[in-house]
Amino acid sequence: MSQKNEFPNFPADCKSMLCKYLTKEVFEELKDKKTSNGFTLKDAINSGVKNIDSGIGVYAGDEESYTVFAKLFDPIIQEYHGFGPNDSHKSNLNPDDLDAPNPDPEGKYIISTRIRVGRNVANLPLGPAITKDQRNQVEQDVSAALNNLDDKLAGTYYPLTGMSESVSAQLIADHFLFKAGDRFLEAAGLNRDWPQGRGIYHNDEKTFLVWVNEEDQLRIISMQMGGDIKEVFTRLATAIKEIEKKVTFSYSPHLGYITSCPTNLGTAMRASVHIALPKLAKDMETFKAITDKHHLQIRGIHGEHSESEGGVYDISNRRRLGVTEVQCVQDMHDGVVALIEKEKSL
Ligand code: ADP
Ligand code: ILO
Q1: Residue from 261, 298, 305 to probe ligand 2 pocket by mutation (most atoms less than 8 Å from CB)
Q2: What is the pLDDT of residues 126-165, one digit of tens each?
Q3: Which residue among the candidates 35, 238, 263, 324 is catalytic per the annotation?
Q4: Does position 1 have pLDDT exceeding 50, yes or no?
Q5: Which amino acid residue places its CA nearest to atom 9 of ligand 1?
Q6: DSSP secondary structure code for residue 55 in this structure
Q7: Beta pairing partners, 112
């Protein structure tokens, strides 16, 4: 990181929300501010400064970052979530409120379904500002809580330290484990002391997984083959409740669950399917019109910043803050129904 605290020079074609909202005036007002964990504006923007192809470009080091640097975070939150500084968030993880019959009972289109939430431990800095000791303590406490789970959630915690290359490569290829060396996370300070303190917990079936100390301290994941969205959501809701008995998460009435990336605030939920839409893929305008209508995001099948392969896409809810968890999954379900209907008609 450069030592200078000067207004960054973004290229004219930069499209990130950082370069849109970090005006010279905002920069001057915030450049010498710090949170009580010592997190600065320079820390918050480094990922977007180093990666000019970022979509967003900012990360929070702690809950306080969202107020100390509100002049920058608020407009980003407003544009991404359509959520204003005086709005408040509501949570609803009750599967009974979800109307989501399998959109593809014959299994022709949906390959797999995955729903994850991000969580961070209350009263600790977030990943970009956490110390090595704090991170290791999170790993200890969270893995102990996970090792207490029983029945279908019972499993094993596998630390990244000591995991063989071939095991981690296979877990990544199978969509279970996070990738190493992500350049956006690297510049955000989220890869410090790698691989120490990181790991993955999963049950034998790999339908319930928890990532520890990646972008957020916990990513709680429920996934399985096929399109039974309600079953996946129900398993996730049960798991969250169980983990909450042992770990207190950072939550604010305004921003919901606090996460390091502002796109994940609120529910911190991304509900997705891997779905084959080879015909619709040839008409991206129609494809995008449907996903926009249902507030959905299109990703490639190896996660964010990856490409589609063979007409298979990762389709997920885009909104996460100011809507409930049930609404996030409902958005995904209803949009997927519409996408399948269109694909069938082509
Ligand atoms: P996140 O879900 O945390 O936003 P990514 O987009 O990087 O992060 O996805 C993480 C991993 O989960 C990737 O390997 C991705 O392919 C996998 N994944 C996402 N959705 C599904 C799904 N519906 N089925 C199987 N794997 C999925
Ligand atoms: N910082 C990256 C990613 C933003 C949203 N995704 C995640 C994983 N938080 C960017 O700005 O493109």
Answers
A1: 261
A2: 999 999 999 999 999 999 999 999 999 999 999 999 999 9
A3: 263
A4: no
A5: 303
A6: S
A7: 225, 274
Cα 68 to middle of ligand 2, angstroms: 21
Q: Is the CB of 56 under 6 A from ligand 2?
A: yes
Position 8 pLDDT exceeds 90? yes
Annotate 282-340 with DSSP letters as a single string: G-HHHHHHHHHHTTEEEEBTTBTT---BTTEEEEEE---SSS-HHHHHHHHHHHHHHHH
215 is catalytic: yes
Tokens of 133: 């000791």
Each domain of the chain, given as residue ranges in start order, spans 17-81, 95-345
Q: Do domains 17-81 and 95-345 have the same CATH topology?
A: no
Higher pLDDT, 280 or 1: 280
Q: Which fold would CATH assign to domain 95-345? A: Creatine Kinase; Chain A, domain 2 (3.30.590)
Q: pLDDT digit string (tens) for 247-281?
A: 999 999 999 999 999 999 999 999 999 999 999 99
Residue of the nearest CA to atom 6 in ligand 1? 303
Ligand 1 centroid – CA 317 distance (Å): 13
Q: From CA 92, how far away is CA 74, in angstroms rounded?
A: 24
- Domain 17-81 in CATH 1.10.10.10? The answer is no
The two tokens of residue 176 are: 């279970």
Spatial separation of the C-alpha atoms in residues 247 and 121, rounded to whole Å: 7
263 is an active site residue: yes
How does DSSP classify residue 124?
A: S
Q: Omega of the bond prior to 11 within 30 degrees of 0, cis?
A: no
For residue 261 and ligand 2, the question of a CB distance below 6 A is answered with yes
What is the spatial distance between Cα 258 and Cα 289, in angstroms, rounded to a whole number? 31
Cβ neighbours around 338 below 10 Å, total: 17
Q: How far apart are CA 26 and CA 101, in angstroms?
A: 47
Nearest 10 degrees: Cα torsion 118, 120, 126, 130:
-120
- Work out which ligand 1 atom sits closest to the CA atom of 219: 3
Q: Which atom of ligand 1 is nearest to the CA of 300?
A: 16
Helix (H, G, I), strand (E, B) or coil at 128: helix
